[in-house]
Amino acid sequence: MANQPIDIITKVLEQSAKLVEEKLDAQLSKLNEMDEDDLERLKERRLEALKKAQKQEQEWLSKGHGEYREVPSEKDFFSEVKESKNVVCHFYRSSTFRCKILDKHLAILAKKHVETKFIKLNVEKAPFLTERLRIKVIPTLALLLDGKTKDYVVGFTDLGNTDEFPTDMLEWRLGCADVIKYSGNLMEPPTATQRSGTKFTRVEKKTIRGRAYDSDSDSGDD
């Protein structure tokens, strides 16, 4: 009786392996059955998909994607957001140390995720927009889809409450908001070891239409 659960698990694993093997055999058989015309059409479809992807990337690059840039004014912000589907905007202040930490990570992600525009805006030059979006804590990332603010990353709370979070932690957080194409597991942050006392927040995908934030000791962000 003690071996019965093990036997059941073994049978399930064997059946799963058999299904995978049968699926691979079917795919190989299908490839073997293709004639030269079929292979040529497959090659053409793949080439067309590649050309389409390259054209899309060039379009993104022409709109300022692929690099982390500063926009000089509120007017420029609206122009930048209007022409791109996915936008990450860092609302920063020059005197805030944590903004410089975010700058480093955002510059890396801008090159990796060309599908998304990464920009920064000095809150001191954008009082109207800062008030409109009810930004109270610096740094704050506004995550926009189709010109509308969908989510915010306020301070470092969602990044492990530490200044030493890795870039892939921020990447995961942006993936949770669907503002980048994320290939990892959204159910858990990408970290194997969590520091004692460090809190990671599982972020639900939702739209946030501006909200008031309590300053989590704003002097601590300076």
Structural commentary:
The radius of gyration is 23 Å and the shape is flat. The protein has a five-stranded mixed β-sheet with strand order 1-3-2-4-5. The chain has six helices and five strands, in the order ααβαβαβαββα. Helix content is 44%, strand content 13%. The chain is of the alpha/beta class and 222 residues long. The protein starts with a helix and ends in a 46-residue tail after the last helix.
Taking pLDDT < 50 over at least 5 consecutive residues as the criterion, the unreliable ranges are 192-222
| Main beta sheet | 5 strands, mixed
- Give a count of the beta strands, DSSP E runs of length 2 or more: 5
Strand content: 5-15%
Mean pLDDT: 81
Instruction: Sum up the overall morphology in one term.
Output: flat
Indicate the structural class.
alpha/beta
Residue share in helix: 40-55%
Task: Record the strand order, biggest sheet.
Answer: 1-3-2-4-5
Order of helices and strands: HHEHEHEHEEH
Number of helices: 6
The radius of gyration over CA amounts to: 23 Å
> What's the N-to-C terminus distance?
65 Å
Key terms for this structure?
44% helix, five-stranded mixed β-sheet, alpha/beta
In short:
This protein is of the alpha/beta class and 222 residues long.
